[in-house]
Amino acid sequence: MERSLLDEARVKATLENYQRVKNSVAEAAVKAGRSENDVRLMCVTKTVEAAYINPVLDAGADLIGENRVQEFLGKKEALHLEHVEKHLIGHLQTNKVKQIVGEVDMIESVDSVKLAKEISKESAKKGVTTDILVEVNVGKEDSKSGIYIEALDELLAEIAELGNIRIKGLMTIPPICDEQEVRKYFSLMHKRFIDIRDKRIDNIDMQILSMGMSGDYEAAVAEGSNIVRVGSAIFGARKYF
User: Fold this and answer.
1) Is pTM, for the whole model, over 0.90?
2) DSSP-based three-state secondary structure for 111
3) Contacts of 203 (CB under 8 A, 6+ apart)
4) Per residue in 74-118, pLDDT tens?
5) End-to-end Cα separation, the chain, in angstroms
6) What is the DSSP letter of 127?
7) Phi/psi zone of residue 164: left (φ > 0), alpha (ψ -120 to 50 degrees), beta?
8) 166 closest CA partner among 212, 133, 188, 197
């Protein structure tokens, strides 16, 4: 009984968190002079069990992000995924590509020609076209994946030639810093996003700028993000096993 009550309390807290964050994202969009519908809230479900994800999906969440291929595949069948868009947002190894292609709607973490070629190859084998974002390491941090922004044009030009993939935008995780500094990184990303979009390059359709997480999503929205990836602010602190 005690365990059951604890679970119900966690579910209640999660739903309250979800509604609060959803409202906060909408308010940030309006404050930035945009429509509240211009920014999508992604619920990041890393390390979260299906029992705590499903109430949020049932409450209307329509976009989830997972970091790890095996974790997503392991709990996919238990999730209420009808009408829910699924993104892989974590670093993707080439040897895991065949497992995830066709299982998610978008891969947000493409940062090399090698990885893009593997996604293209596996997508062709499965008869699908995979939407991707290019991940930019905007802070040039050794601990993070992503291509440096100076190399972005060259990478985009190469992978735009590949079949069975569609480049839909950019994703980034900035360094941990104060709001003023983080907004500079987000602003830089938005400028590059607009520059690339305005060039109208074949197979590069700059629709999505995915940036902002639990600690900085309001700043990201202010600087032009249209997907924010929020995990701990909804589901609570991560539990690693």
Assistant:
1) yes
2) coil
3) 160, 161, 165, 166, 167
4) 999 999 999 999 999 999 999 999 999 999 999 999 999 999 999
5) 24
6) T
7) left
8) 133
